[in-house]
C-alpha cells in the first residue's frame, strides 16, 4: 500500500516545494509497505536565531500541527537582518556549515530547540531529510520607513510633486515622511500637529496663514524663526515662556523677546522595517531528487522593525 500526500509549503504564493520522499516503513509496519510522506508550512512564521559559532545563524519554521520543522543554518560574515542588501546573498549548501534539514519529532518543539545550544533530551527525531546540495538566496530590504510623527507616510507625500524622496519642506536632505521635524524649528511635528479646537483634527495654524505650524519656520509670524525664540538656547523653544502672558514665545506675536541664534537639532529617529526573504534553489536531498516535483523552496519572509537614527544636514 502506498500513501501519497502533497502539500503547499510557501508562506506566500511564490515558489513552491512539493516534496515527496520514500521512507522504509517503521518497525510497526511488518507488511513491507513503503510510505510516501510530505510536509507543509503554510502560514507558519519564519523565525531566526544566532547559532553557537561566530557569524552563524539559523532560520526555521515549526509546524506545531504535526510536530515537524524545517531549518536552514549557515555561516556568513556579511548577513544582517537589519542591513539592506542590493543583491541577494548566495550561499551553497555543503552539509556542514550550511545545512537545510527537515525533521519530524515525537513531541512538539519550540524555538528553544534551535535557539538553545543544548536541545532538550526528551525530544526524539523520527524522520529527517538533509539537503546535500543547493543554493540559498537571502535578501534583506527596507520595505517601510516612517518618522512616526502622527502623519501617515503616504500623507506626507503627493502634496506638491508626488514623490516621497523630493517632498522635503525644510530642505535638510530628509523627506518629510522620514523627518520628525518637518520644518527644522526644533519642535517635533507630532507636537505641532494638535490644535486646541474641540472636535477639530486640522493641524494647528497659529498665525492663520494656511500653513500649518509643523510646516512653518515662524509659527506666530512675528519675524523671528521659531527655533530662535529659545532664550536659553538649549534647542527646545517649548521651555521658554513670556512671564507676563505665560505663552510660549514662539506662539505669541506680542512677546518682546529678542531673537537668538539656535541651530536645528541634528538627531532624527525613524522607524524602519526590514524584510528578509529566504529561498533555497536547486535542492538535492540526500543525493536523490527523483521524487521531487520542484527543487526550489521558499521559506517566505521575516520582518523586523527597529528605530534608526539619521543625521540632518
Layout of helices and strands, plus pairs?
Layout: E1 21-24, E2 34-37, E3 47-50, E4 56-63, E5 68-75, E6 89-92, E7 99-105, H1 112-115, E8 125-146, H2 189-192, E9 267-285, E10 297-311
Antiparallel strand pairs: 1-2, 3-4, 4-5, 5-7, 6-8, 7-8, 8-9, 9-10
What's a concise summary of this model?
The chain has 313 residues and is an all-beta fold. It is built from two helices and ten strands.
Average per-residue pLDDT, rounded, comes to 83
**Could you list the spans in which at least 5 consecutive residues all have pLDDT below 50?**
1-37
Over the alpha carbons, how many angstroms does the gyration radius reach?
Answer: 29 Å
Helix content: under 10%
The count of helical stretches stands at: 2
State the order of secondary-structure elements, H for helix, E for strand: EEEEEEEHEHEE
CA-to-CA gap between the ends? 72 Å
- Share of β-strand residues: 25-35%
| DSSP strand tally | 10
Q: Characterize the largest beta sheet: strand count, sense, and whether it forms a barrel.
A: 8 strands, antiparallel
Q: In one word, what is the shape?
A: elongated
Which structural class do the helices and strands define?
mainly beta
